[in-house]
Design a protein that fits this description.
Blueprint (H helix, E strand, L loop, with lengths): L7 E5 L7 H11 L3 E6 L2 H13 L4 E4 L5 H14 L5 E4 L18 H26 L4 E7 L12 H20 L4 E8 L13 H11 L8 H12 L10 E4 L9
Parallel strand pairs: 1-2, 1-4, 2-3, 4-5, 5-6, 6-7
Bound molecules: nicotinamide-adenine-dinucleotide and ligand 0WE.
Amino acid sequence: MGLLEGKKAVIFGIANEKSIAWAIAREFREQGAELAFTYANDAIAKRIFPLAESIGVTQVIKCDVAKDEDIHDVFAGLGKIWDGLDILIHSVAFANRDELKGSFLNTSRAGFALAMDISAYSLIAMVKEAQPLMKVRGGSVLAMTYYASEKVFPNYNVMGVAKAALEANVRYLAEAVGPDSIRVNAISAGPLKTLAASGVGGFHQIAAHVEAKTPLRTNIEQKDVADAALFLCSDLSRRITGGIHFVDSGYNIMGM
Ligand code: NAD
Ligand code: 0WE
């Protein structure tokens, strides 16, 4: 029997077959969960529908997380077909490309607001709409973060500030929905070559650095994150909430 047998999960953030959220989706399906996907825009639709079909997922809903009404409609729709919701995966981040290079001093007011809105605020909006459905049986919310929230990484810039806000959101939300037996956690993943990491100047150098300097001397894979996500969204982690859990080959423990 799968660890997620009988559970219903909604997953935000699949763009293609390299997405962290796609690895999580496959793993959750193998473990018996019933899934719904959301996607940002029409450009992604042509990729996500075949992926969904390949693992028997029929609920695929358009949702721009910058829009309250889109988020509302996702959960209103799921409430009509599902008797409660057990799992919510937030695997979404965005900053304008020109904010992710050069000096942090050049961060614009609009660029700051956009990165915070899509990458951090959206978690609050989702949990607010999910709460009525999730409190039926209790549930687990999981977001994706990066260590550049805590330490300065070149070029990550405004995204580092947005991830710091996302991690604080995890703690505040965990307290806010804990009485409904809803848990909220984040995984802080090591660098992965996904769409969101493509075009990042020097990604190869970052990966080489991790391989040379981490305690485990290896980069992570999407499956490593999916396995940790399975634990954090299953009943095995029933008393774990509000935490940031590293899946990074141990990178975060190093000083020099
Ligand atoms: P990805 O590009 O596959 O996923 C990012 C997703 O965000 C995409 O599906 C994109 O459509 C979605 N998105 C962006 N703007 C949106 C909007 N307005 N509305 C709805 N969706 C929107 O890349 P990924 O690496 O799988 O990223 C997933 C998460 O993991 C992100 O939060 C990212 O910050 C985090 N993360 C990534 C890495 C890495 O190195 N790749 C490391 C740690 C954490
Ligand atoms: O969280 C991320 C990706 C965040 C991201 C990436 C992009 C690129 C394309 C957010 N918005 C955009 N907008 C775009 O237009 N990661 C952890 C991967 C990542 O992104 C970096 C990294 C790493 C690692 C950006 C700069 C430096 C390193």
